[in-house]
Amino acid sequence: MVFDILHLAIILFLIAGLAFAGGPLILAMLVAPRARGGDLGMSYECGMRPHGNAWTRFGINYYVYALLFIAFDVDVLYLFPAAAHYHTTVGWTAFFEICVFLFFLVLALVYFRAKGVFTWPRKIAL
């Protein structure tokens, strides 16, 4: 194997990429303040001191709904490129592909409903 200018460029770009990725991390470890305690351990409430017990726990149902929203929101985002490309397609193929995609979305909703994911408890246990 002959070492030429292309191999040198690849190695230099690899070193530069590692320096750009690792440089700020190493610099932060060397320069960052080491203070602990005080206001650093407090929860953040818009720059004001928290009132009462600010470390209250929320029920897992909030997180489940948030994850479901993100999952279905990302799935629906796949429909925008399909809708933008739909007018350039010939025949019914794109229509059936979108119908299959929507069928699986509805099937997932039915599955989650059958599993009881969408039932909200009367009292959230902490």
Fold and architecture overview:
By secondary structure, this protein is mainly α. It has a domain at 60-115. It is built from 4 helices and no strands. It has helices at residues 5-31, 60-77, 79-85, 93-115. Its EC number is 7.1.1.-. NDH-1 shuttles electrons from NADH, via FMN and iron-sulfur (Fe-S) centers, to quinones in the respiratory chain. It catalyses: a quinone + NADH + 5 H(+)(in) = a quinol + NAD(+) + 4 H(+)(out). The chain crosses the membrane at residues 6-32, 62-80, 92-112. This is NADH-quinone oxidoreductase subunit.
What is the count of β-strands?
Answer: 0
Largest sheet, in brief, is: none
Gross morphology? flat
Radius of gyration: 26 Å
How many helices? The count is 4
> How far is the first residue's CA from the last residue's CA?
65 Å
- pLDDT averaged over residues: 81
